[in-house]
């Protein structure tokens, strides 16, 4: 018996059922782009209400580092608010959910564990875009609606702020 066969007999490793590429892709959604809202996430299967769709690990920007640096960069439109003024940048697909005023995905900001979870808040048909609610003050044209002007004190207050655990 060759050495490799002995090792294989001692600790058999089941062959992978999917290619590495398939295993790295999300299961229930895919990313697509359009000219109006850029990249977004779309259901590839029927997603039942309450399904955990994604957990995004996050990078922390303290309130001070946000105020001094991040708010002056493209990150301003990607950061999620924490109740203490800190901000989280969602990694993975967490920053790709677009906004809808009747969202089909709810999110929870978990400052302690530095993650954000996204759940279907109703049943979502295959092909539908997965959207969250950013808040009342939008900084982009939403279906032709007038944009709210930001005041300096309020800047960021309603952006991507939802429920913090
Ligand atoms: C958190 S990012 C979402 C991902 C973004 N679409 C991308 O390609 O990076 C927020 C940005 O997406 C765009 N966006 C999100 N929801 C939108 C909507 N309903 N209509 C138009 N643009 C939207 C805006 O440009 C906004 O600044």
UniProtKB/TrEMBL annotation:
SUPFAM superfamilies recorded for this chain? SET domain
- SET domain location, by residue? 27-135
**Which residue windows are transmembrane per the record?**
none
Q: Name one Pfam family in it.
A: SET
Q: What is this protein called?
A: SET domain-containing protein
| Native source species | Triparma strigata
């Amino acid at each position: 018996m060759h050495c490799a066969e002995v090792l294989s007999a001692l600790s058999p490793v089941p062959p992978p059922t999917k290619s590495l590429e398939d295993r790295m892709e999300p299961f229930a959604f895919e990313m697509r782009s359009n000219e109006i809202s850029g990249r977004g996430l779309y259901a590839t299967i029927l997603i039942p209400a309450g399904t955990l769709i994604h957990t995004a690990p996050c990078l922390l920007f303290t309130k001070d580092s946000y105020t001094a640096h991040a708010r002056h960069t493209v990150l301003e439109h990607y950061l999620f608010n924490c109740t203490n003024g800190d901000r989280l940048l969602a990694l993975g697909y967490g920053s790709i959910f677009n906004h809808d005023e009747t969202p089909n995905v709810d999110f929870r900001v978990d400052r302690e564990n530095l993650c954000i979870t996204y759940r279907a808040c109703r049943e979502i048909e295959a092909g539908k875009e997965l959207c969250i609610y950013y808040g009342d003050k939008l900084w982009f044209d939403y279906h032709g609606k007038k944009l709210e002007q930001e005041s300096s004190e309020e800047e960021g207050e309603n952006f991507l702020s939802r429920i913090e655990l």
